[in-house]
Structure formats: C-alpha cells, structure tokens
C-alpha cells in the first residue's frame, strides 16, 4: 500500500480563525455578545481520547492555531486563539477563548469574537490574529464609571464579499467590559488601513519613557515584504506611523505574528526583544520563530544581532564545471519533461512568473522548476564527474517533498485493461453503461469524471469528489459488475484521501459479497499505482467496489486505469529533490526547505571516493510547493555551515509557531524580575491540516518564562516552563536512576523503574568525543529486548540524545508511532549545544501524550515536537552508540493532568488512549446565532475540502432575541443547520 502523504499546506496566513455569528445592530455599532451554552454537561470522553494532551491546552473540539490576545487581568489569564467552531479543519476564522488562574488548568469559554456576515449571510470579514490590552486609563472611552475595558486589536481579513475592503487586511478593535466574556466590535473599524492584502497580526502595548511621553505602540507585519511596521496611538483608534524594521536575517517565508517587549537580563540590563514568526523558512523547516535583541526608543527598534551577508560563515569549495549555471545555458545537462517544461530551456535569473522573491542563490542564475508554476514535472541530469573530495556542497530551496524511488513515467503493468480505463468505448460512456451500480450521492451523478488528480491516464477517471452534488461531502458506493479473475493482481491508479479503515474510504474487491482485499488513497492529489491481490480467486467472479463514507479531511478518493494481470505495478517516482547518482542508483537525496530562499547543503560522499557520479534534479510534484531550486554544486573538503543557524531562534524544533507574549504580566506573579511569558501554537503548517487527532486539531505549548543571559559576550534569550508547571509534578512518585545503572553499555537499555505518557525527565549525560547517547520515550513495552545489541535507530519511540561527534542535541521522531500522514512529518531535528566544562550535557524534557518539549544549554536552547505514539507505548529506554557515555543524573517525575481533569464535570482522564469519539456537547454551540447559510463562501478557506457548518440552538437564539430586544436592540439572526 502507498505511503504517499498529503502535500503541505503552503503559505497560509498566521492568523486563521473560526466563525460564529450573532449580528446585532446597536446604535450604529456592531455588537457581538456571545451567550453561554445552555447545557453545563461535558461529554465524559473529553480528555480520554487518543493523543489528547494531559497538561497542554486543547479545545474540546475543532481547529485551532495561533494564540491571540493573551492577557492577565483581575486574577485570570485569558488565552484567545484562532479557532474554527465548525470543523477540525481550518476555516471560518474567529477567536476562541479559554481562561486559567495558573496558566495550566484551562477552562474553555464560549466563542469570543466571531467572523462578520452581511445581510445575505455571507462572510465578509474573518477575524485573524491580534492582541488584547487592559485599557486602565480608559483611553479609548469604551468603559463607563466603575468599569475597565479589555480591548482586542485584531486583523480584519476581508473576504471578496466585503463591499469596501474586498481582499484586504486591516486592523480593527473590539472591546469587553465584562472580563472578556462578551465583545463589541467598534463601529469605526478598521482603525488602521494600509490598503494592503498582507497587513496583519497587531501586537499592542503601552509605552512610557518616564519623561512624560506615554502612548500605545502597535507592531504588525507587511508579511510578504518581510517588514515590521510600527505605529502609535493615544486612544487605540487613530494611529500614526512610527518606523519600520526589516527585512533582516531569515526571510525564506512570510513574516507573521510579531511582538516587541522589554526583558531584564540576569546582569540587570534591560533589552528589548523583537519576535518575528516565519512561515516557511525556519531553522527546523516550515514554521518557526526568530528574535532580535536591541533597543526601542519609543519610535525605532534597533537590533544588535542582525546578521549581514558578510557576517555569515564562509563556504568554500571548487565549482564542478558549469554547475553554477552562470553561462545562461544548461550545457551538457539532460532535460526530460513529464508534464509541461518545469525547468524551461535555460537557468532562471531569479523568481519566475507567479513566484514570490527567490533569494540566496550564487551569482545571477539558478535552476528553478517553477516554469509554468507548480504544475510542471520532469527531471534534469548532469554529465558524470569523479568524486574525489569528502563532500559535495550546493544550494537548495523550494518544496520539501522527499524523493520516493520509482519509474520516470507512468506506465501501467502488463495485463487486460478493464472498462476501457473509464474512457468512452462505443456506446459505453458512463459507469452505468459499463454495468456499474451507484448508491448514495453517486446515484444519478456524473461518473466517471474528467477532473481531479495528477497522473491520471486519459481524460476520465472515478473521483468521488466530482461524482455527486456535494463535493467532498458526497457519500455512497460505486460497484462494478462481476468479472472473472484471470490474473494474480488487479492494479490501478489511486489518489485522493485515505483512511486506516478502508471500509470508510477505499477500493475493495468482493468475492461472494465479502471483502477479500482493499486499498485506500495516499491523502494526495497525485495518483500512483496500487494493487489488490486476487491470486486466491483466479477463475472466480469478483466485483470492485469504491466506498466513500467520510465528509471531511481529504474526504474523496480517485481511481483510474484498472488492469488485470500477473505483474505487480511499479510506482512512479515522486517528490522534489536533488539526488546523487552512483552507478545509476540514488545514494543521496535532499529535498528543499519549503522556502524560496536557498540554503547550503553538504553530502558526505567519502565512501564513494574515486567513483563516477551524476547530479539529478527532480520535480515530480504538481501542486503544493511542487518545485525545486538548486545552484552552485561544488566539491569541498568540509561540510558547509547553515546560514539559518547563524540567526537567533525561539525554538529549534518544528512545532513552536506564532509565539507571542502575555500582556499585563506586571500584575502577575508568574513573570518575576522583569521577565515575560510566551506561549505558542504547537504545530507546523507543513502538516497541520492532517495531524491524526479527533475531534480537535492542534493545541498549545507550555507557557514559557522568557529571560535574558549573556553567552560568550552575546545576549541570548532563555526559556523555561513557568513556575506553575511544577505544581503538576507528582514528586512523590519520582524515580532516580540507581548508581549501579549509570554506566551505559553499547546498545539500548530499559529503565525498569518507571514508565508513562506524561513525564518530566531531568537528564545529565557524561559524554566523550564520539558517538551518541540519550533517552528514548514513548517506546513499546519490551522494545529494548527485541534484538541483541539493538541500536537506538532500530528502536521504536522518540529518540532524544546528544551526538558527541557533531556537538548537537537532537530529537528523532521517525519512529514515533503514527508518522505516515505526511511525508515531511517523520524527521530528525538537531541544534548545536556545547558540553559543560566537566564534559556533561543536561536537558529537561516534558513528555505529554502527543508532544515532547526539550530545554537544554542552560535554557538557551529549546526544541518542541508533536508525536503520535500508541497509547500503550510508555516505556523509557537509555542508549549509547559508538562512544564512552554514562548518566550523571536521571530523575523521571510523573506529571499530573491539568486539563479535562476529574474536577471538570463528567470527565475522567485516568484512561487515556481510547478511540477518538465525538465529545458531543460543543462549548461553542448555542453561543451565538449565525446569520447565514454558508460561512465559508467568499472566505479565505483552506484548500482541501468544504467545512461542515454548526448552527446555534434555536432556544439560544430566541433567548438572545428576547434579552436584546428588551434592551432596545434588534437581533438579526438566521439559523444554519448542520449539514
């Protein structure tokens, strides 16, 4: 079966939200109070689902991304966030809301700020990311005597249905005078408009220089320009431009979710920190956050850690022939086109038509397979050359879609073509003409279809998205007439969505009505060859049945060119990559970095010394970052340093994005001594839309206290979980490794004294100069004894270690349970960490049911990963490979749950890992009546399927109408039914 995964979600905006909608006309202002759910009941399964975190916040159900408007007020921490109350897929962007008294035990609140609809029920404004401030001095004038207003400053992402600002982004405000429970959108919105489509993510704070100059400051982004724009205001309504910052350092993706705040260093010095979240182009690939340290004078931010091109480490080597492409031709390279002409007829001078800025290439030209857009596919192969140095070094960018071996073309296997490959054959045109029967939405639909999927053969194929009236909401079956099995295999091209349970979405072969084999799709628009084994049924009659019983998240399947024969099909190659060929075989391969900024990459080729080799640049992806950038191939004596590692990062892992700080933390005891508290979305846009959780998708990191320290004469941020995290450590059950077990023998050793899926691990290793050592968490029971002298790389679980040979801490999640939902998820991430003077390396690791957060290097390095292991995989192992290592200290402390605990009505977290089930009561249902029938129409909805709609309850809407009418307002509400 195919392991091909879904394409990345590329270039989605930082601020993505969800939708409710109670539109109330109030004296010209649009107020959006949100009513609490009528029911206090909470489904007893919430908190027990497979992968549900125990001490990280996730909403009961549906999609979340960026944290927004985080603020401390009146003893309560408020976490607002981008949310889709309709679905666990992105769309209907609004602000969700949760509250806590300690930043750990969170209670989900009703939807805070919903998207806006017009009188026809069409979405005209999505509510993207922003911030919340406490207007203590009532500068905006929204509070009455005795009240204090919380004011949200957010991005209005106007849809194409908006009558005035269609397609633009501007900044708006809303206010609350009841501790953030209900919000009123300001009638004068937007308050800051640059006539831009990429002006977003405002973070606002009060600035006072102590000399009589005090005002609000806003930092926001012009995302595609890699620029921070700064404004000031006395009342949060009228804004005056101050200055701009950028572009600087990492610019491989759009800049999003900025922040600016002061931090007092451990030496007493106050520095200002500018945070920029970047997508894609982070140090770990895809989404991430970088920071700048400097000074802010109330008008301009001046950074002291900007890295200019001349400051980057020098990369040396000898160019191979004209493999720098400066001649303006491809010379002796061989070009083979599969679809379109992706490489064109000559090297590119930079970005091509429809492409954002391409940077980082050497000289004036490079290989760029975006010719004609991502649609083109093909490959180019260099003339041969001798490998006579230890390294090959080159620059690469573009899509991060690892190469999968296969044929260049798309040739079907030998055999009998059934049903003419769904192409017209005389009077046989429709599937019914070929004798197929349809049920559900496919009855009377248009089948086959001439649309959907790359690598289809001919013009027609079966596509359940196109085969009925409801697109991805189509459900039903398509069943062939009986036919005789005359070969061992039924081969076919299969694309579209996939499910582990093929009876939900798949292709089945039936013998006497029973399913005897089945396949599902790859969660990708590319079709590739699959087969059904029918060798036991030769001479018997069977049927083929296509079943689609799902309605969200790649909820369709595509099938084409069914062949009966005795030969298994050969899959065609996939991915976008640069490959090294030795004797015609791929021995090294590197994909891009999901960025239009090229980065240096080095291959260690010492084992092939003296052999002839070729470079092959491949583009076998026709969508979703389906292009590759390459340049300047050199022979080198040493590996090239990476420019991205010269910049400063909040976190070196792949799953720490949109991190911003809490406002008003001077009143909190969780940000002592001039420090700040930050929290992030714990996911990555490379695969965020397909992570295997249900009925929610995504959550948030632990809140981190941010400090500042000096390392080798240079200030660096420190981050560590806030003090209240320790309140959930079960210290009474803490385990310490006995002295007699601290010497690490070669291989993998089980830690017998403790296991678990929620742990804090404090580990200090003594390491030599070679090899690697560390710990494996969430491993299967008995994993250490499955084979003699087993290595860590042969052991299931999440491997966390120190490689003494490279001087790097790393996390390897390639064997961390379920990894095949996206080709970019199984990965290894590393970061440079120097040993202490005594030769030790220390790290603190927080393990939850679906995440690992690592802190090391005296808290100057952090690395965050989401993982999806089996519920029963809770063993802890130690390992040592190729070096002399021992454990100085190891303490493992169980963590208690902080969310969805038994303190909440009807929940029981004691048995995590059950199958995901619908939690039933949705805290957003009934919270507001929604005026419209299609909230996604005209909105910036994520590609990949329609979103089901969830309406407010009639009783809630009626109650709202009565209450608001009594107050002299007019309620305008239209109920939407769940389809």
Automatic annotation (TrEMBL):
One of its GO terms (cellular component) is cytoplasm. Pfam families: Glyco_hydro_32C, Glyco_hydro_32N. It comes from the Bacteria. Residues 897-950 are annotated as: Disordered. PROSITE patterns: GLYCOSYL_HYDROL_F32. Keywords: Glycosidase, Hydrolase, Membrane, Signal, Transmembrane, Transmembrane helix. Residues 746-893 form the Glycosyl hydrolase family 32 C-terminal domain. One of its GO terms (biological process) is sucrose catabolic process. One of its GO terms (molecular function) is sucrose alpha-glucosidase activity. The chain crosses the membrane at residues 952-973. InterPro entries: ConA-like_dom_sf, Glyco_hydro_32, Glyco_hydro_32_AS, Glyco_hydro_32_C, Glyco_hydro_32_N, Glyco_hydro_beta-prop_sf. Residues 925-942 have a biased composition (Polar residues). Residues 901-924 have a biased composition (Low complexity). Residues 1-36 form the signal peptide. SMART domains: Glyco_32. Residues 56-308, 639-719 form the Glycosyl hydrolase family 32 N-terminal domain. Belongs to the glycosyl hydrolase 32 family. PANTHER family: EXOINULINASE INUD (AFU_ORTHOLOGUE AFUA_5G00480). This is Glycosyl hydrolase family 32. It comes from Ancrocorticia populi.
